[in-house]
Amino acid sequence: xxxxxxxxxxxxxxxxxxxTPREHQALTKHxxxxxxxxxxxxxxxTEQHRHFVAxxxxxxxxxxxxxxxxxxxxxxxxxxxxxxxxxxxxDELRRRSVNFExxxxxxxxxxxxxxxxxxxxxxxxxxxxxxxxxxxxxHASSEPTADRPDSEAWREQD
Length: 158
Fold this sequence. Notes:
This protein is mainly α.
């Protein structure tokens, strides 16, 4: 069997400060075996290995310094994975939020343009109606009469 390279603390160099140099050395030396036992890639051969697996599975309390260390290391790794996932989720939510905001701003601008175009069209229609009224000799008065209703009032009914 080919010797393995030293275990590298799951590439968590940013978490080195959680471990003393002695703990780091123990993890580097025994990390591969501990990981393989935990992942059931190798069978426990000794009573110490069987106890380690039982500790990892929560079946008994840790006794050795390395068992306590591995549990702490595992918890730190789990917390780091969860934190990384939360950061990724936050980044995704932030990206979606920015896209949503941009979409809202685009929609507001589009509606402003539509409103502006409708106001221009309304002004054009009012001028056109006024020119028709002038051609037909219809003059809007301030007081509607029985034979000629207020021109503004009949426009609003349509």
